[in-house]
Amino acid sequence: MNYFIYIRKSTDEDDRQVLSLEAQEVELKEFALRENLKIVAIFRESQTAKEPGRPIFNQMLDQIEKGEAEGILAWHPDRLARNSVDGGKIIFLVDSGKIQSLKFPTFWFEPTPQGKFMLNIAFGQSKYFVDNLSENTKRGLRQKLRRGELPGYAPLGYLNDLRTHTITKDPERFRLVKKLFELYATGNYSLKDLQKLITSAGLLSRNNKMLSISVIQHVLSNPFYYGVFKYNEEMYQGKHEPMISKKLFDKCQKILADRSRPRKPSQKEYPFRNLLKCGECGCAITSETQKGHNYYRCTKKKTPCSQRYVREENLAEEISKILQKVSLPAAWAKNMILELDKEKEESAQAGAVFAQNLKDKIKECEEKLDLLLDAHLEGTITKEEYAQKKQKILNQKIEISEKLRDFERNGNNWLEPAKKFIFDANQAQIVAEKGNPKEKAEFLKKVGSNLVLLDRTIKYFPRGAWKILVNLGNFAAEPRSGEAEMNANFSKLPDWLRERDSNPRLSP
Question: Given a cut of 70, is residue 472 above it in pLDDT?
Fold first, then answer.
């Protein structure tokens, strides 16, 4: 009787100590020699038997059906089949007489009803082992996700700790990957610029190769870096240390989205282009150059419009007047900083209430997540609806948690934004007098919204605290003869530092 030797090794098996292909071959050849079996071919395969479709296994069965051999020699029945289809083929070939003998060093088989029954049990046990292993693996993954641990390889900047099975900071790359986000968020670097900068700084892949543009883009788009991750299209909050804040991540996403839109090449840069709209018809203000001067005019695409051309120099002068109105002299700024320092001491108690409000909102988000999970498990909402709503609530929780963390780290963290506003108001005078047209345009966008051009004059709505300064008058234009006059003018200021709309404090 002619025999085929079939040996198989699968890398995804739970027991990694199953004999290797070479060891199986040696053992089976020695067994064939002892049993005086005639071996006509050896089939080697490195593929799982969980699913049908193994090409070498199917080739062996085809040759058996053609009569090239009547028996199979394998280490164990689970080498032949771990699924019902392949197991059924073996038993069918035994029933039809194509296979007259199956030999295993660790298992007895004879082509009798009892032998086929035992073979069926062996194949069933092999399938049960695979099914049970799969279920145990899935259960382990679910538990890992509940603990906030990402299954699989850690992203660039992190490492897999094989001892604790957690993800930790990469001491060599963590700081450099964080720098990647910080540089891109400035808007001053393209992905290619980042590639050159970060390579020169020493950030390489785990294979010590330069990061490709696509890898850098993937890093910048991966929410893992601000503390969450996606698995099977569902968002989870990770227990690893976040590399960046969600605010910084969102800023990078906006830049990525803006730069992905096709842009028309512009031959010349106009500093006030895309800044204003027509106050008469609402159309955009376009720009052109005539006789060496830049002019701005309404596109007049919707309805007839009577607005005329405006020279760039005149617009720059208009913006300077607006910035003059919201500027603060250095002496005033100094006095206001002193008031802020006094406010800091008085608001310690209010800060505790503010922090508690944030904690209550975090708890509220957690309760919503629990209710959402219950609704999904009860079948009230679909998996897609659950994943979508969970992502929204989880992102909200992350944002509030970041606010709380910043507040607890910085204490009265409204102080610094307020001081920054006063500094900006002090800088407005400098920009109005010495800034170039582009700097003036950027500062104007900071001061006001809904910028329109009507009768060659800029109309706008001041934002937040800038509105207070506009209402109080043009400080920069007022004469300042001495300290007494300054204090008199300062007393006109309302207590805007304590008003929510005009104070850049954090708010629940």
Answer: no
Q: Is the pLDDT of residue 292 over 60?
A: yes
Spatial CB neighbours of 243, under 8 Å, sequence gap ≥ 6: 157, 174, 177, 178, 181, 225, 226
Secondary structure tally for the chain: helices H, strands E:
17, 14
**181 in the same domain as 139:** no
3-state SS assignment for residue 29 = helix
| DSSP category for residue 107 | B
Alpha carbon separation from 176 to 223, 352, 358 (Å, rounded)? 17, 36, 32
Out of 411, 428, 459, a domain closes at 411
How far apart CA 131 and CA 121 sit, in angstroms, is 15
- Half-sphere exposure of residue 385: CA atoms within 13 angstroms, side-chain side: 10
Tally the residues of the chain. 508
pLDDT at 504: 38
Q: Can you read off the two tokens belonging to residue 86?
A: 């392949």
What is the pTM assigned to this prediction?
0.45
Please write the tens of the pLDDT for every residue from 479-505: 444 445 445 444 444 444 444 333 433
> Containing domain of residue 98, as a range?
2-143
